[in-house]
Automatic annotation (TrEMBL):
KW Oxidoreductase (keyword) present: no
Tail specific protease domain sequence ranges: 250-416
Organism for this UniProt entry: Pontibacter actiniarum
Classification via Pfam families: Peptidase_S41
Name the UniProt record assigns to this protein: Tail specific protease domain-containing protein
Gene3D superfamilies xrefs: 2-enoyl-CoA Hydratase, Chain A, domain 1
The keyword Signal belongs to this UniProt entry's keyword annotation: yes
UniProt keyword list: Signal
Signal peptide from the UniProt entry: 1-22
GO molecular function ontology, one term from the record: serine-type peptidase activity
GO BP terms, alphabetized: proteolysis
Amino acid sequence: MMRLYRFLSLAALALLTLPAQAQDCTCAASFELVVQNYESNYSLFNIKVTDENRELYKAYTDVFRSRASEVKEIENCLPVLTQWLQFFRDGHTGIKFTGTGSQAAKRERIETDRKKFEATYKKKGYRKNDLPGIWQYGAYEVAIMPDPTASTQSKDYVGVILSSANKLWKPGDIKFKLSHVYGNDYKAVVFMDDDSGKKLEGELRNPNELEFKNFNRWAKSWPNSAPATAAKEQADLYSDFHIRMLDGKVPYVRFLNFYEKEPAFVDSLFKAHHDQLVQADFIVVDVRDNDGGNDNVYFPALPYILSGPIQIPQAGMWMSEGNLETALEGVDPETLNEADRAEYDFLMAQKNSIFWYGNDDYARTYTPKTVFAPHQKVAVLMNGKTASSGETFVYRAMQSDKVVLYGQNTAGVVDGFTVFTKRIGCFELRYPSSLRAKDIADNPVDPYGFAPDVYISPDADALEFSIRHMRQLLENQAKPAP
């Protein structure tokens, strides 16, 4: 492939930002621009809106157009835009309020650090309540403290970032807010990477475990207690890329996400544990809560997971005028040589169509250079927060005869990818520009996700059950046929 083709391929790995459009910051005007941009540039629009449901979509849009016209303050427009966007049920889409020049949206912060918080904790006697302390989940460590903006009589709390492996979050940022309801129950607002707030129910299940229902669970790491220390150790292990042996016999592989590490790291990790991996009866690969990243990161692991060749659908890019301008930004056709100019003209001729990478086949065949332990079993753990590249991993793994999937359906956020962001007026839009496969209209994954082979309740210990089930499966298979 020549340079321009390569750019379009590499764009699939990037989060691209389009220049801002200076516009009037009224809700009615913003709504029209949002609708126009999604209808023109969102790669799945013509799949989500067809002749069968176009009248439903039009009426749906008209309802929100009317609501937008009634909004007087621009900061109250975001719920209208967000609710309109839910028609598409696509986790890769999003809208963020950025504010005007004089009124920019700012993430709430409380300046603190671990040393300062621990001193305040002791001084103010926070130990009388089980909730205040230092808690950990995944990439985040937070200090839960009384909300300094609430009245002294209220029982409201905030979770303030102390450290984060997610570079979008800095120490001092407020990650969530808790408002006491009764007993150990709380109303919660958890802030996402785009600063939108997700309303959830919270429960302090015990002094060392805080659950945001149907979302995640946090473990207390300070003040220390024996259960808390054990919980922190488990949280530490769950929140980092690693391979370790369980019971001295079962290799456990944890893929936290596919964006924090490079393929070379994964390759070295598997090579360092090669003997343990290939000599085991089965291995466990955990992609629960894996929200994606770059597919290339997990390819070094595939020789240990696949049983042979697999099919990878040819992806495509929606070549709207806006998407073409973004993908070819900085390319001056007058300066190109003859070959590149011909390629440029070819791409421009694809305007308002889908450009499919590769050949005309539905899929390409991927064959690993080698297959380790071909008769071994692989337990893959997944859940409702396994998304995007986490789901492409599941899709490729499920084609292996070695693999059994355990857990719950994945998130169903994979049909559209290559997310572009575009600023219009007081808002920033996020939308996919590419398509996972040629048959999305007939065989969508979004929003249903991939189903497990063995369903495990979110409340159950999936790791413990998968190991127990896999051992029983192998024992049963070893018995002579009756």
